[in-house]
Write a structure and sequence with these properties.
The protein has 77 residues and is α+β, with helices and mostly antiparallel strands.
């Protein structure tokens, strides 16, 4: 996957994944938590290292979801 530099040397994938819809905004039930974790892990497995999340998507629910999904690979980075 292509990469881009952010700021002073933070290299991330050129394509990212926005996680807002995984916890709010696209209807009352955006998806099963396990399904959303599977989507996030699949993106990681395909080389994505740029994820968009924000406190307003929960609050904190979205960050916890992304954190849980990506926790297994922290040592990869």
């Amino acid at each position: 996957m292509h990469t881009r530099m952010l700021g002073q040397g933070l290299e991330v994938s050129a394509m990212g994944l926005g996680a807002m819809g995984m916890s709010q905004s696209y209807g009352p039930n955006p998806g099963d938590r396990d399904e959303m974790i599977a989507v996030l892990r699949s993106a990681l497995d395909h080389g994505a290292t740029f994820y968009d999340t924000a406190e307003v998507y929960g609050p904190y629910v979205n960050e916890e979801l992304v954190g849980e999904a990506l926790a297994r690979s922290v040592t990869r980075w």
